[in-house]
Amino acid sequence: MRTLGLEVRTGLTQGREACRESQREQLPRRKAGVVSTMAGTKALLTLENFINGKFVPCNSYIDSYDPSTGDVYCRVPNSGEEEIEAAVEAARAAFPGWSARSPQERSQVLHRLADLLEQSLEELAQAESRDQGKTITLARTMDIPRSVQNFRFFASSILHHTSECTQMDHVGCLHYTVRAPVGIAGLISPWNLPLYLLTWKVAPAIAAGNTVIAKPSELTSVTAWMMCKLLERAGVPPGVVNIVFGTGPRVGEALVSHPEVPLISFTGSQPTAERITQLSAPHCKKLSLELGGKNPAIIFEDANLEECIPTTVKSSFANQGEICLCTSRIFVQKSIYSEFLEKFVEATRMWKVGIPSDPSASMGALISKAHLEKVRSYIKKARTEGARILCGEGVDTLSLPPRNQAGYFMLPTVITDIKDDSCCMKEEIFGPVTCVVPFDSEEEVIQRANSVKYGLAATVWSSNVGRIHRVAKKLQTGLVWTNCWLIRELNLPFGGMKSSGVGREGAKDSYEFFTEIKTITIKH
Ligand SMILES: NC(=O)C1=CN([C@@H]2O[C@H](COP(=O)(O)OP(=O)(O)OC[C@H]3O[C@@H](n4cnc5c(N)ncnc54)[C@H](O)[C@@H]3O)[C@@H](O)[C@H]2O)C=CC1
Ligand SMILES: N/C(=C\C=C\C(=O)O)C(=O)O
């Protein structure tokens, strides 16, 4: 069976490999990923950019860490303007051929890529877990299946778009619209759901006939690089998908500022989105910005707590709380507040933190040391403000194997007795931390839920259908899940209001974003 060649060795094998590597470390690297460099006695996986259908080495590299151990295990190209120039040239040359293909032909290529990713599901899941810190179980059941689904979904939806036509018989005119791909799409994705969010952008962009330059997060580049190994076999022509690795300020900005890249789709933080907006403004680029959240869960006294509690534990702590849709403010109606709190804390304590390969773990390691420190700093701040930490960080003890003691783990943490204007209730923490507070009335909770700058997602728990509709309509969020969380219908618009973003993604929305529309009038 073919593998994607993710050759990071451990134990004895690694020692032998390191020894071999030491004998040839002066030789130039030739084969992406397989040839490694020295760091102490460890052999490192070394990635290369993928430009014009070929793996291309870079002049300098960034260390990438295994979040579960804190060890450097991979080197990521530290690309810049030069690599973006080469990628633009390749994407420009590939555009006429790719955009001229029929939607059916492009659809077949996307289906083949989906099949190939699916055949490598286990290998990709292991790699995603190692690179990101999430459990292998989550990568196996969510990240990689959804990446496959992204290609299948857009392979199908691209076949079903129609355009508009209107008549003006009194002046003898017929009007209609046509759509065309925009050109070279710049795609910038984050580290929390690496392949999942990268493919959510690549699939609709190429389905619509664009060529792309993607820049994954420098913290989690491995599965994007593995996907590149499948592109040729899937029938993606050289230059249609180019992946350039490196940091935001260096290669990300070079991509955003390039005058021949008319469109940027970005998922990540609000400050970065601000910078991207500034850099794009002189070129009037099309922008889709999918940003953070401070998502409320509103739990009314008639909620079914048996369903609400496990789902709210999951919505708070899934993927270490590192999903923009995670719940971080839980408003509970006063009459059930104590009961909820007690049961919620009990259920949170069952949300096991473990090494990513542990099948019984619900949560793995956070993405980086810096991020772990940032998340912890919020808890410290809450404590100094007089809030109570009911479980997790600083309250319970985390037990880890010796090899993982330097990993970026922390326990899921529940905070209460906290004011709405505390930074823990206002800012995106993006970690396994959630705040629980009581409320009295429907109007009050809507006002408090809406009182933050973000507007991405909310959950509402009640058995009163009328109330659910009323509250859902008044919440200032792009998504509202009632009596559930993160059930995705990929056809429908996905995205946020206020500081949570600009634009929507989904079947029709992504198609509209990745194409330009033109109105044509025929006088007959
Ligand atoms: N979808 C979401 O809501 C996400 C939110 N975040 C939030 O952002 C915080 C910081 O995480 P970061 O990784 O620093 O997010 P970020 O927004 O800086 O990174 C996201 C992507 O943007 C790129 N990038 C960074 N600076 C750039 C620039 N100047 N120009 C072009 N591209 C640039 C990064 O390399 C990465 O590929 C997290 O703590 C979390 O609060 C992070 C990831 C996803
Ligand atoms: N954009 C994010 C999640 C998207 C989930 C989905 O499309 O289902 C994020 O966490 O950044």
UniProtKB/TrEMBL annotation:
Its EC number is 1.2.1.32. Residues 61-520 form the Aldehyde dehydrogenase domain. PROSITE patterns: ALDEHYDE_DEHYDR_CYS, ALDEHYDE_DEHYDR_GLU. Signal peptide: none annotated. SUPFAM superfamilies: ALDH-like. It is found in: Cytoplasm. PANTHER family: 2-AMINOMUCONIC SEMIALDEHYDE DEHYDROGENASE (PTHR43720). Catalyzes the NAD-dependent oxidation of 2-aminomuconic semialdehyde of the kynurenine metabolic pathway in L-tryptophan degradation. This is 2-aminomuconic semialdehyde dehydrogenase. It comes from Ailuropoda melanoleuca (Giant panda). The lineage of its organism: Eukaryota, Metazoa, Chordata, Craniata, Vertebrata. The gene is ALDH8A1.
